[in-house]
Amino acid sequence: DLDPPNVTTTGNHENPRDTLQGGLLAKSFDQKSCLSRYQSSLYRKPSPYKPSIALISKLRSYEKLHKRCAPGTESYKRATENLHKLSHGSGEQCQYIVWVPLSGLGNRILSLVSVFLYALLTERVILVDQRNDINDLFCEPFPDASWLLPLEFPLTNQIDRFNWRSPRSFGNMLKHHRLINNSSIKSFQTSYLYLHLVHNYGEYDQMFFCQGDQSLIRKVPWLIVKSDNYFVPSLWSLPSFQSELTKLFPKKDTVFHHLGRYLIHPTNQVWGLVTRFYNAYLSRADERLGIQIRVFHHAGFLQLVLDQVVSCTQREKLLPEAQEEEVNISKKTTPKLRAVLVTSLNPEYSNNLKRVYWERVSSTGDVIVGVYQASQEMHQQRNKKLHNQKALAEMYLLSLADNIVTSAWSTFGYVAQGLGGMKPWILYKPENYTVPDPPCGRATSMEPCFHSPPLYGCEADTGGTDDSLKIASPFVRRCEDRVSGIKLF
Ligand code: GDP
């Protein structure tokens, strides 16, 4: 029996456990190799958002494609052998997209999910660059076939050098008209292209989000992509993708929620961090609140941010006000336990909150507030196994809360809200060292924000714009925490 003992689930006890998440997950997996895949339903409330039949069937056919083309197959062997030929892609049975990790873990998860959606839409096989710690963080998501790009992949040594200036970058090829005209059908004469979808991308790289350019890219057997962004909202601008996307996601703001839950399964080691913490501090609470505190461009504690957190949580009634104890308060009812999970690089925020609710009583008298923090890593680190594992565990723990408060701009928070299916209260970015008024606001959707959407339209004469919303589809709106960003709602 793989169920952990004595878990007080937040789940619905009347319904049998939906381990496969409404059909989102495939059945044929070895349970022990990835406990989180099966046990997450013990810790989560069942999602109110059911995946569409179209999405489920798309995922099942993707899994078949993946198995047919994965490393180790004849098709993969042939496709890699053809890498150095000047192929137009004709006759290739399997086409690939290689995801290369970039930036912090939140950014990575967002770009991974975006690339996976693009792979689904274009019938490409996603493979992930495994040279960092991907294997220590996530289980294999597809049955009977690996998603790890073999280390001996012929371009491995070049991947790190790929950037927007690279000769095989899509933007560069486009800019220099490196296209061939074959009976008036244009195409790239290359077996691979590098896609630069990083926040600093330029006009030509951004043409990735244009219909005509997608037909050029479509013929190239191998794509290698670097991105630090959740570029899903702009895929909705492409007419050829739009109709399929609306079928797959009739409720548009569930893209990350479903694909994240499908793709992101913490390894057993990370799952241990999640479950031990949950069982020790959160499982017995009547309600769980997550507070994700991320302060950019400042390493230490900021009193201002603590004031903002207190002001937000009390104003929004997520936490009770704390007041001096009155001796004659009658306490008839058993108080409810509200567990607060604080995530932050610094320990001071949770220490201060803890002190407030220990030294004082809650104004309503019927709530006991317990404050907990898992790690205090102090500084962001790159490619350190345990550091990243803790970060993933904490994103996941936040996603198990009933409500969350997140920090503006932070992809760490986006992952938690998306996995959890929650509209967070966003702590607005403080300007001029003052607590913003209001200190926070409720997000309109649980979708992550695309921080750097294209600023150039697809027509030759569009030119740049300072309003990315003008060239986006009607399914998106401006992000609450970043005016230049867009999100599905
Ligand atoms: P973003 O920078 O807030 O958008 O989020 P990212 O996850 O992309 O990058 C921040 C990185 O800093 C994380 O991946 C962690 O490595 C580290 N970090 C930031 N906040 C926390 C935290 O609350 N807990 C832990 N464990 N790590 C954090």
Largest sheet: 6 strands, mixed
Helix/strand structural class: alpha/beta
Q: Oligomeric form of this entry?
A: single chain
Helix residue percentage = 25-40%
Strand fraction equals 15-25%
Bound molecules: guanosine-5'-diphosphate
**Count of individual helical segments:** 16
Q: Rg, please?
A: 24 Å
Q: Which regions are unreliable across 5 or more consecutive residues at pLDDT < 50? A: 1-14
Give me a quick take on this structure.
The protein is 33% helix and 15% strand. The protein is of the alpha/beta class and 489 residues long. The strands form 5 sheets. The chain has a 6-stranded mixed sheet with strand order 12-10-8-13-14-15, sandwiched between helices. Strands 3-2-1-7-6 form a 5-stranded parallel sheet. A two-stranded antiparallel ribbon has the order 4-5.
